[in-house]
Amino acid sequence: MNRRFRMPEAVLLGLLWIGSGCSDPMEKAASAYKSGDYITAFHYYKRAASKGIIEAQKRIGEMYEKGLGTPKDYDEAITWYQTAAEKGDLAAQSHLGLLYLKGRGPGAAQDYASAFKWLQKAADRGDIAAEGGLGYIYKIGTYNVPQNYAEALKWLSKAADQGDFFGETQLAYMYLQGEGVSKNPEQAFFYIDRAAKGGDVHSMRSLGMMYQLGDGVAQDYVEADHWFLIASARGDDTARVNSNVVQRNMTLEQVQEAQKRASDTTQMPPISSAQ
Questions:
Q1: Rounded distance between C-alpha atoms, residue 92 and residue 81, angstroms
Q2: What CATH number has the domain bearing residue 30?
Q3: In whole angstroms, how far apart are CA 27 and each of 30, 31, 43, 234?
Q4: pTM over 0.85
Q5: What is the average pLDDT across 186-208?
Q6: What integer best gives the mean pLDDT of the chain?
Q7: Alpha-carbon span 156 to 135, nearest angstrom
Q8: pLDDT tens-digit profile of 8-19?
Q9: What is the DSSP letter of 126?
Q10: Is 268 helix (H, G, I), strand (E, B) or coil?
């Protein structure tokens, strides 16, 4: 009696996938990542990374850092970023330096020496986020990097001029506090305003405070509450408290106007994914 051979479904799907021209692990990973299938993307990037492909090693570091397709694990992120960074990958160098700067390394302690090493490499090659991070290290000074406001101003300005929120806010604080520069609240307002309108939530709250206090700009409770409400809607709990406080000094008409401005989606910047 003739029996019809039936190929297992998993094998058939695998053959169809290969036949479609997506036999390369990097292609499979990129396709899965783009479609939001991070578990599959992680699987294929890990396979490619184990073969020494630098782009895949960087991607695995990123997925461990963000918890995409795998539980978030900063130690693993650093391991993979470092592997790619030592081979010269610019983005990996920048991400690695920033993780050390934020204290996301082994033991969850800030490692300024490692942060400075990798951020310097990446900043010298033009990475915007690394420029901001390097400027911050020079601004605060550490045990291995003496405080240097001139270098801080140089690197933070480079980052800010390219739209980096962190660079803009740190420059603003320098001008607000007179750190290495003459106090200039108006210049501080310029950078905070730009970062807030670019979508940085913390800057939205800071902008509201500057309007509330009349610091670097004419005092304006309506604009202050406008920005507090937007930041609050983006999850900033402190901004919600600030809104309640400033509204005590406002008329009902002013509160309604602030709410109208905040609800006008044409005025609301996109949510920042940075910093």
A1: 5
A2: 1.25.40.10
A3: 5, 6, 12, 35
A4: no
A5: 95
A6: 89
A7: 5
A8: 443 343 434 434
A9: T
A10: coil
